[in-house]
Structures are given as structure tokens and as C-alpha cells.
Amino acid sequence: MKRLLAGLSVLFVLFLTACSSTDSASGTTEDGKTEIIFWHAMGGELEASVNEIVDEYNSSQDKYTVKPVYQGSYEESLTKLNTVAGTADAPAVTQIFEAGTKQMIDSGNIQPVQKFIDEENYDTSQWEENISSYYQVDGEQYSMPFNSSTPVLAYNKDAFKEAGLDPEQAPRTYSELKDAAEKLTIKEGDKTSQYGLSILNYGWFFEELLATQGGMFVDNENGREGEATKASFNDEKGQKVFELISDMYEEGTFYNSGQNWDDMRASFQTGTMAMMLDSSAGIKGLVDNADFEVGVAYLPHPDDVDPQGVIIGGASLWMAKDIEENQQQAAWDFMKYLSTAEVQAKWHVESGYFAINPAAYEKDIVKQEWEKYPQLKVTVDQLHDTVPSTVTQGALISIFPEARQQIVTGMESLYQGEDPKAALDKAAAEVDTVLEKGSRSR
Amino acid sequence: MNDSRDLQPVPPQESRRPKRNLFAFLEGWLYLLPSIILFGVFVFYPMFRTIYLSFFLADQMGPFEFVGLENYQYILSSDSFQSSVKATILFVLYTVPAGILLALFLALLTNEKIKGIGIFRTLFSSTMGMSVAASSVIWMFMYNPSIGVFSRIAEWLGFPAIQWLQDPDYALLAVSLSTVWMNAGFAYLIILGGLQNIDTHLYENAKVAGVSYLYQLRRITLPMLSPTLFFIVTVSFINSFQTFGQIDILTKGGPVESTNVIVYSIYKDAFINNDVGSASAQAVILFFCVLLLTALQFKLGERKVHYQ
């Protein structure tokens, strides 16, 4: 027993010393290469894809080595970054989701890539403007777009045929959507075996449905002309979105699929609903896994508006500030490599995310893929048809994660019979409070 | 302790005593040191730091503006915190009594000496070996309205399928049910251990006296088991107040905040909303609630506990 205890205490001391001597996150390897750490949030099949791209980069040149590290979901990796940001242990490159953009800028721990663009006169016009503009503030490019997606309407073509609808003609306006959903809904007694539509309880979809009508999420031109002080999503445009959900839910044509993407997709695949909103990045997997034909169409809009297009979603790559010069150079070199047409073509084909460099769409592997999955082209077209403005640039606020939770709570209360306007006003009031509190941050 | 010296009478040499006392004092501290360091680093320091942070506006990088009690005022006046308190209390009420009664029932069943009882004992305590994450994922599949077993059963019985985790009326109940299942193994094992410790002579005497099973349960088993029950009630209460994993995996505090218990709300504020001040204030409030409750339990509950 005593020996065991002694052994344990030795282990404990070892553990403590191991804790205190943290490994330096980045450094120079023995063979003189500069090594940098790349934190990303791409799990599952996407992780394999990212690792492959990084391996190819490492063998394509002999100055730098990039080490990819998977850090969990977008939220988790942002949280982890916050604990090391601004120290020498911070990763040189981190992938951060779109909603974390303002938080990153305000943190002061990042190096805008604009510096390197200027130094090298790097031609940014080769990038897709609708994507890179999301990460621009006051004309300065802060981060490097990497994986971008937009929302689309996915539908079950077989169910359309059965309901007597034209499978090549997806609904575009709200009234067409309601009409189609009603025809698609199949009721057996008091049970519904197939619903018309489902929208995930996720703030992003609300933001998109608002933007396509030209609605602003917050004041001061979505926080891009100045610090946002008040929520503006509870205007009549926002109400139209909430009314759509509320009306359809009451009519029994809308299915509440909760907050989980996988649950929603599983329900779609088992035929619980015939239409849903999904991310463009999920389309390929959806087509592969469904045993029916999947159609993809633009995001629906209210009858009387001119659709403005979509806001970019997904993530971008941020460079750390307080690291050595050669590491920043390595990070920049890696970012440039990622944005080449070849890598972007591969990335688009494997992940379904957009190519940030439109030249990639001219590559053969993309053309072949589009023949196999014509649905992917629809997602790209929708992005190209987007009208650039502060609306489709998206809101720039640091409290995005919390704002999204408030929208979700509002959406969920609709299923409890809450009045759409009241639900939206409540969410807006909460967001106002948080914006006020957030404005007092450093 | 093989020091036989302790057992011998102390020689009356007054002059040597202070020195020995000092030595014993230091020696005692030396033995305590590992646990003091552990507690200090992992319990006391975080605790005081949390109390400190609760008086500041703070993000994950640390505090940046002293605001006194503003965090507390904000929390206590917010609807969201009130619904968190409600969800927490309901959650505790759903899980603690049900979990202990279930464990007690199973333990009584398997306290008999029958062939093959080991199989049942292993089965009933097996949930102890399951991680919260793994069990939550299993329950998530069972609750799934399209493919889950619960909707299949409901369908078979002719009831409409319930969206267990998407309906605010059922979500907390659903999470509680899975929690009862997850915690039953531990409570069962502790209670069974307590039952096994009861002197068999008491039961033999009861048999001779010819009393009924219920009388025996009320007058022998439960009083003799009371220290064990007291322990498991206290631990279950505290556990229940601190439940996090299954809520994060099953509902993420939704729908309409119906499962947003205080611990989950703390997590959300600290790690998603980057508002460490508010999270710390909630943590402090929760700490004092649990402290008060535990103190009350010791004051009121322990009177009924029979120590042998």
C-alpha cells in the first residue's frame, strides 16, 4: 500500500511538472524549416480532406511545415483560442466561423492579412468578391476566406412527382412555398406521415431569410458603418419570416426538426418532410445518402420583394499577431497556397464548400463533379446572383453567438403558439441588452 | 500505523513536549500537504477567483471593469435566469427521488441470496460504467421522433408520436428520465453495499418474532440503512444540481430554454457568449444554494439517521 501511494505521488509530481512546461506551439524544426500550427474545426471526412491538402502543401516546398490540429466545433475552437490568443503559444493560423469575425477583430490579437496583400501587391481580385467582402472592414481584409457556404432549399423530387408538382420547378416565393408544402403534406387520420417543409432552429437561417428580403439584422448598416447599438431584425421583414413559420406550423405543413443538423437531415432522408433549408456544404452528402432524387433551389423569399441573394456562411483563416515574423510569413505562404485554383477546386469537390477563387470552377475536376452533381452548380449560381451590399455582407457584431440563441428561442416559442411579432420583439429586446453590455467590453 | 510508541504511556518529561508537539504539528501538515495543494489549486483558487470575477465585467481573457453587484442585479432580474432556476428545481425533483427509489427497489430485490443473483447485480450496476456522453447519444437515438424506439412504441400503441426533445413540455422530463437511468447504477451499488452491511442477526430475530416483511423493512432495514441513504441523497442532490453532459448533448438547453439549467446557463455565458462576469455570478449563486441545501440536510435530515 505504501509503495503504491509513493508511486502515485511520484506520478502526481510528474503530472504537475508536465503541466507547467507547455510545449511551444510553433517553432523551428531541426532541419531548419519553420513550423507553424494550424487550428481548424473540420471534423469527420472534412478533416481527412484538410490533412491531405496540408500534406501536399508541406511537400510542395521546403521552407515551411504546417501542422494541422483539429480543435472541435467552431464554438469550441474559438473558446480554446481565446485562452491562448495574444501569447507565444497561439497557433499561427486558426479557422474561425463567420459569426466570430467581429470578436476576432476586437480582440486585437490578430494580424490582418491586408499587410501581406499590400507588401506583395497580391491580387485579391482573383477571389470571389461576395465571399471576401464578408471579412473586410473599412476596406481592410482581416482574414482569409477558406470554407464558405450559403443556405439553399433542398427538396425531394420523387415526393414532388407524387404530389403532382413539377420536380424541376421548385417554389421561389412564400406563397408558392406554402402551396407546395400543403400539397406535399400527407395526413393519415390525425397523424402526418409527410410534412411539407422544415427549417432548422438555427439563427443562421433566419439571418439569411431576412437578408434575401434586404433586411438588416442590426442598425448602423448591419454594424458595418459603425458599432451596432440596436437589433433591427424585428421589422416587418423579420416578421414575415416568423409569420411564415408560425402559419405553416399551425396548418400542419411545417415540421419542427429541432436544433441538430444531423437529425434534420435524417428526417429528410427518411421522408418525414419533403423540403428543408440546408447549407450548400451539406448538399453532396445529402445527394449521396438519399434513396430519392434530391433537388436544390434558391432560398425562398416573400412574394413582393426582389431577392437580394444570400450572406456567406462558413469560416475564414486568421493569423496570430504576437508570433515571430518568419511564422507569419509561413502562415501567409500557406494561405496563398490554399487560395490557388487547384487547391480550391479540390476543396470544392471534396467538401462542397465554395471555391474562394472562381478560377477553380474552370478546372476539369470541378466540371466532372458538376456533371455528377448538378445540384452543386445551383449553390454557386445563387452566390453569383447575390447583389453586393451591406445587407448581403452580413451583420458585424461581436455578440453573434448570443444573438443566435435568442433567435432560436424565438423560433421555438412559435411552436408553442407565441405570436410572431411578440416572439421577435422579445428576441430583439434581449439582443439590445446584450449589445449594450457588449459595447462596454474592452 | 505500526508505531507501537503511540500506545505506550508518555514519559513525564515536560521539557521535551513542546518540541515534540511542534514536530508532530509539522509532520501532520506534511501528510496533509498533497491534498492541500490539490484542493488549493483545483478547488479553492478557482472558487475564490470565481467570486472575484463575479464583481467584474469579464471575458475569457480576464476582468476589465469593476461593476460591483451589477452582474447579480442583471441576473436576478432576467427572465432567462428565472426559467433556469425553475428548470433546475424541477430537474432535481424529477431525478433525485425517482433515482433513489429505483435504486433502493432494485437493491432490495437483489439483496437475496439466490443462484445467479450476481448477473442481476452486474446488470443493475452496469450504468455506472457508461460515460455520460455515450449514454446520452444512445438516448438521443431512442428519443428521435423519426427513427427512435419511443415513437415506434407510441405508434404501435396508437398514440401520436411525441417529439420528446423538441417539445418544451416533455424535454426536461426526457432528459430527467435518461439521467435517472444513468445515475441508478451508482446509487444502486452504494445502497446494495449498505444492505449487505446490516447484521443478519437482526433479520433472524425478526423471523423468530414472525413480523411481516413490510414491518421488517420499516423497523430494521431502513433505519440500519439510513447512513447510506443519507449519503446517497446528499450526493445525488449535488450531482443533480451540477448536471451538464446530457443536457449539452440532448437539448443544448432548449427548446425555449426549458432545459437550460443553471449549470448549462453558466457554461453558455462563459464559453459561448464570452461573458465570464455573468457566468461567475451565476456560479456563486448556485454555490450558495447548494451549500444552504446541504447544510439544511445535515441539520434536519441527519437527526433521523441512525449510526450504529
TrEMBL record, chain A:
This is ABC transporter substrate-binding protein. Belongs to the bacterial solute-binding protein 1 family. PANTHER family: ARABINOSE-BINDING PROTEIN-RELATED, SN-GLYCEROL-3-PHOSPHATE-BINDING PERIPLASMIC PROTEIN UGPB. Residues 1-25 form the signal peptide. PROSITE patterns: PROKAR_LIPOPROTEIN. It comes from Terribacillus saccharophilus. It is found in: Cell envelope. It holds the Pfam family SBP_bac_8. Keywords: Signal, Transport. Its main location: other. SUPFAM superfamilies: Periplasmic binding protein-like II (SSF53850).
Automatic annotation (TrEMBL), chain B:
The keyword Isomerase does not apply. The lineage of its organism: Bacteria, Bacillati, Bacillota, Bacilli, Bacillales. The keyword Transmembrane helix applies. It is found in: Cell membrane. Residues 85-297 form the ABC transmembrane type-1 domain. SUPFAM superfamilies: MetI-like. Gene3D superfamilies: MetI-like (1.10.3720.10). It is a multi-pass membrane protein. The chain crosses the membrane at residues 21-45, 87-110, 122-142, 170-191, 220-238, 279-298. PROSITE patterns: ABC_TM1. It comes from Terribacillus saccharophilus. Coiled coil: none annotated. Keywords: Cell membrane, Membrane, Transmembrane, Transmembrane helix, Transport. InterPro entries: ABC_transporter_permease, MetI-like, MetI-like_sf. This is Glycerol-3-phosphate ABC transporter permease. Belongs to the binding-protein-dependent transport system permease family.
